[in-house]
Specification:
The chain is built from three helices and three strands, in the order βααββα. The chain is α+β, with helices and mostly antiparallel strands. It has one domain. It has a three-stranded antiparallel sheet. The protein is globular and about 35 Å long.
Length: about 60
């Protein structure tokens, strides 16, 4: 049996981030526009995903 860690998903939806940070959707959107959070958009549904790396960096700052 190999020894490995399970990692959290690298991408979060806006609703997941609003629950984690306890803030509103528009706050998250303004952080994305200011460049404080990095986001990727799904081409098919247009759903926005926030990268875990940028979320961790924002929370630590």
């Amino acid at each position: 049996m190999s020894n490995y860690k399970t990692e959290e998903p690298a991408l979060f939806t806006i609703s997941q981030v609003t629950q984690k940070l306890n803030c509103e959707r528009r706050t998250i959107m303004s952080l994305i526009h200011e460049g404080k959070l990095k986001a990727k958009q799904n081409h098919i549904r247009g759903k926005i995903w926030i990268t875990a790396k940028s979320l961790n960096a924002y929370v630590e700052s």
